[in-house]
Structures are given as C-alpha cells and as structure tokens.
Amino acid sequence: MTTKEVSIGIVGCGYWGPLLVRNFGNLPNCKVTAVCDAKEARLKHLKGLYPSISCVTEFNKLFSDFDLDAIVIATPVNSHYPLAKASLLAGKHTFIEKPMAASSAQCEELIELARSQGLTLMVDHTFLYSTAVRKIVEIVEAGDIGDLRYINSRRLNLGLFQKDINVAWDLAPHDISIILHILGEFPVSVNCQGNAHVTPNVEDVTNMSLIFRHKRFATIQSSWLEPRKIREMTIVGSRRMIVYDDLQTHEKIKVYDVRVERPPHYDTFAEFQYSYHYGDSYIPHLHQEEPLKAVCQHFVDCIETGSPPLSGGRAGFELVRVLEAASASLKASGAPILFAPPVDQLALRGNGITSTADVSALSVAQ
Known about the structure:
Blueprint lengths: L5 E6 L5 H9 L4 E7 L3 H10 L4 E3 L4 H4 L5 E4 L6 H10 L3 E5 L6 H14 L3 E4 L6 H11 L6 E11 L8 H17 L5 E7 L9 E7 L5 E7 L1 E13 L3 E5 L7 E9 L13 E8 L8 H15 L7 H19 L5 E4 L19 E5 L2
Parallel strand pairs: 1-2, 1-4, 2-3, 4-5, 5-6, 7-10
Antiparallel strand pairs: 7-11, 8-9, 8-15, 9-10, 11-12, 12-13, 13-14, 15-16
C-alpha cells in the first residue's frame, strides 16, 4: 500500500484524453506528471491548459524521463495491447480505455502479466461508476422489479465515424458492460446483424442480441447514422420496469409500476383476458457526480489499497469476448455464436478478477 501522491502519465490526447487529464489532475492524492501524443498540436493545446504538465511525443520517454506510478492509455483500440504490455513490463499500474484490447487473447495476456507483476489493471467501463447505474443495480438486487425478463438498449447518434473499428466495438461496450453488471453473468450466446453504409467493411449500424440463462436476454442497437442522439435503456421485470435515459440531466431513471399478468385459470377462450396493472411511477433521487471522476478515483484507490477494481482485467476480457462473438456473427449473416461449455454464473459484479466458466466461442449455430 502506498501513501504518497500517485504520479500518472497519460497516453493519447484526442477526445477522451483531455477529460482524463482534468479528472485525474483534480484528485487530491494524484498528479498528472506527463502526457504523450504523436501530434504536437494536441500537446500544445494541453500545455496551454495545464502548464505544469510535461509533454512528450515518444511513448518510451514516459519510462525513461519520469518516475511514474501508473500509465493511462486513451488511444485507438489496436494500440491498447502493445502500450499496456509495455506499461506492465515497466512495472506501472495500467488503466486502459474501453474496449480493453483488440482480442480476448491479448486481454488474457495482459491479465496474467498484471497478476505476475502484482499491478493494478483496470478498464474504463465508465458507466458502471455512474450514480444512475449504481441505483439500477440497487433496485434490481432489492427485488423491486421482480424477476428481470429482458433489457433493451439504444445508443444512437450521427457520427463520430471510426475507421479501425465498427459501431459495435465503438458504442456497444458501454451497454454490454452495464448489462453484464446488472445481470451478473455471461451470456449463453450472441448474435449480431448490421450493415456498412459509409465506409466499406466498417458497419455503422448493428443490432446485437445477448441470450442468458432462465429465458433472459438483452438487445443492443448501435448506430452512427441516427439524426438524434439517443442513450436509452429499458429494464423490464415481472413487477416493475425501469427506463434509464442518460441524456436527461436530473431525471435519468424512472421506475414504472406496470405489468401484464396472465390469469391462471379460465374455462373458455372468451373468458380469457390478460390483466394489465398500472400503478404509480417514481423518479429516484441521484447524487450528481461526474462518472469519470469516480472512475479515476477508483483507479487511484485500488493502487493505494491493492484492492481489485470493479472493472478490472477480467471484466474487460468478458466484454471483448462478447464483441468477438458479435463480429463472428456479423460475418455469418447474423447466425448465433454459442459459448461452451454451458455457462455457469460468473462473478462479474464487484469482482474484476475471477471467472468460473470457459467462455470460448464454440461454433456458429446452423
């Protein structure tokens, strides 16, 4: 356990990097010592905002020129693995933007490397740290909505188009991380359909389905071609339903006391009628806090205490497994990708370290 100020180097100063610089820099027990980016214009911009931070264009200089405790990686996905591996081999605690890496094999190597080095490895699954998602998990675990039946999520906007990954890899990680966290288990199968309308071979619209045990499932719609920005998730239970709209400022969660009940007995078809229940809805109070601030604080706390992160390497691995299966399904015209052996309960929620199931993709169902 360390009691000194945690010194951090941040790689990547594009869209997300400056947000990480601001949030880590505002923590009382943390100091952003240096930032790295290949584009000098971006470094000049950051230097203007934070004059005390050193700027370098070569990643290796973060190791040779500074005494850093941790490296934060906010670069394109294909660079996550080599940068994170170099960071861990250099003995640095490592924080990686989502998704963790470009393949599950890369994730597994990073997990083992962090374990052998005794280092904190964390993935930025930002929404797990939001007060809204924490409240949803609290409501679900308390049994307030009854048996969870399905989750429907939509994450849509016009752009930002990527060239190296499709929209599923870009937008769906947020939804996948939330869904796995709420359900606390890994899916039995995944299927995905989509099309590339703007950039050849880079899908800009996808529809993904995750099938879980006990007849539960989740659907995720992702798009860069939508005229409106939508960030909405519906969690349907047997007693109540939750609507989560992340674009709302003060009323992100609404709980609806509505349900449909099938009568247990009836003599004739004419007597058969579904029973619709309409009760009151309510809006839970949420403490206003920037989720990324909570993410950054959690990483520093884990470094100081040695505790496993909520979104550790194992959570990052599980998410990439789903994305890999979605990609395989896209290539197979939407056929489901099965996981084998039959998936047991995973300790996903609150544990970034252990898994009790081999979730290797087995086959494309014919």
